[in-house]
Amino acid sequence: EETALIESLEGNRGMPRLKPPFFPAAKGLYMQPTIVNNVETLSNLPWIVTNGGEAFAALGAETSRGTRMFAVSGHVKNPGVFEVEYGVTTFRDLIYAPQYAGGILGDRALKAYIPGGASAPWFFEEHLDLPLEKVTVDRAGSMLGSGAVVVMDETTDAVKACLRVVRFFARESCGKCTPCREGTTWLENILQRIQDGYGRPSDLDLLLDVSDNISPGITWPPKQTTICPLGPSAVSPIASALQRFRPEFEARITQAEEARHSIPVTITKASSHG
């Protein structure tokens, strides 16, 4: 978060500032106007200066001009960072085309993919033909976000994948806001319990209840109850995964319950002496 970064640069704890009044462009580093941009944004400037803004705007789609870097990882044959024009390339192209990620390892089936970083709701097979364009992806219920696309094949454990996502948010929480600090920790603990084989039938509804306390309504885009969006961002991917793969979560809990109640008992016959 940009204001937390500024706090850190000033030697303070990396906690976000309230906006307003602390928009960096008005009151940033040492309360002076400050530009905070991603490196990708700044890297476009030399090309635009050389070729002109009109040439850059001619690339991409009407609602998303220019190009974008996408980092594709996960179960793909050719993980890497690829620059594409907005709106010209689809997720199917990005994941399967030989000039990009080259398809799924072992030619296995797709289970899900994260379209734009850890905070993005998951996408599935039916979303593959969506163009890489902001408005279209937003309307479909997710976002391009950071451009980090994580591909999960059919062997992926949905519970474990969700746990890894939530663990990231729990670790990255600065602790300033209660819904984020407490909520992400609760989500991690519940998912860890399910993963470890101690899940309870009530845990799935508890996940949704905690999520609703972090971001009321569990809507997309998430409603923000915190100074920065990190906490609410943890809710959306978990909600989308749980909606799609709830039977998998339920099966994990049921199997764990059966295992706990079927511990074999060995009766040893007493030996006689004399």
What does this structure look like?
The protein has 11 helices and 4 strands. It folds into 3 domains: 2-36, no CATH class; 57-153, Ubiquitin-like (UB roll) (Roll); 158-260, de novo design (two linked rop proteins). It has 274 residues and is an alpha+beta fold. The protein is 41% helix and 9% strand.
Task: Please give the CATH architecture of the largest domain.
Answer: Up-down Bundle
Q: Gyration radius, to the nearest Å?
A: 23 Å
Specify the overall morphology: globular
CATH class of the largest domain: Mainly Alpha
For the terminal residues, how far apart are their CA atoms? 80 Å
Number of domains: 3
Residues in β-strands, percent: 5-15%
Which regions are unreliable across 5 or more consecutive residues at pLDDT < 50?
none
The helicity comes to 40-55%
Structural class: alpha+beta
Number of helices: 11
Largest sheet features: 4 strands, mixed
The run of helices and strands is HHHHEEHEHEHHHHH
The chain-level mean pLDDT equals 92
DSSP, total strands: 4
CATH superfamily of the largest domain: NADH-ubiquinone oxidoreductase 51kDa subunit, iron-sulphur binding domain
Largest sheet strand order = 2-1-4-3
CATH topology term of the largest domain: de novo design (two linked rop proteins)
Give descriptors for this structure:
274 residues, alpha+beta, de novo design (two linked rop proteins), 3 domains, four-stranded mixed sheet, 4 strands
Helix/strand layout:
Layout: H1 2-9, H2 39-43, H3 45-51, H4 53-57, E1 67-74, E2 80-85, H5 91-96, E3 110-114, H6 134-139, E4 148-153, H7 158-172, H8 178-195, H9 203-214, H10 230-233, H11 235-260
